[in-house]
Design a protein that fits this description.
The protein has strands at about 20, 30, 35, 45, 75, 80-85, 85-90, 100. The protein is mostly beta strands. It folds into 2 domains: about 1-45, Beta Complex (Tie2 ligand-binding domain fold), CATH 2.170.300.10; about 70-115, Tie2 ligand-binding domain fold (Beta Complex). β5 and β6 (about 80-85) form a beta hairpin. This is Laminin EGF-like domain-containing protein.
Length: about 120
């Protein structure tokens, strides 16, 4: 059920919104939520599921239509929870999210290092 004129303030026109929904007409999700639901449910929007270590400003704010999180430069995935190829060590305090491998092209077998596990960041010599 969509917001209706029956639940609006007669002076301001502000409609009574479902949880996590905002706007005068209750037509958008609040920050940290996405997927505005038109059906009759108590929660109008779905919580974002961002990995704060990999998101810009370490936030839990996602695209209000797709639910995709806003990733730091060297992270990827819908939740920004993994390092891009060629990077390792997902870190909350790293402004880019992950550290470049920087494997020496003359001495390493592969320019890409493992992103996780016990050999994370270790170039294969």
């Amino acid at each position: 059920m969509e917001s209706s004129a029956y639940n609006c303030d007669s002076t301001s026109g502000q409609c009574q919104c479902k949880m996590y929904v905002e706007g005068r007409a209750c037509d958008r999700c609040a920050d940290g939520y996405w997927n505005l639901r038109r059906e009759d449910t108590a929660n109008g929007c779905t919580p974002c599921k961002c990995n704060a270590m990999g998101t810009v400003n370490n936030s839990n704010i996602c695209d209000k239509m797709t639910g995709d999180c806003i990733c730091k430069a060297n992270t990827e995935g819908p939740d920004c929870g993994q390092c891009k190829i060629g990077y390792y060590g997902l870190d909350y305090y790293n402004s880019d999210g992950c550290t470049p491998c920087d494997c020496d092209p003359g001495g390493s077998l592969d320019p890409v290092c493992p992103a996780g596990g016990p050999s994370a960041g270790q170039c294969d010599c």
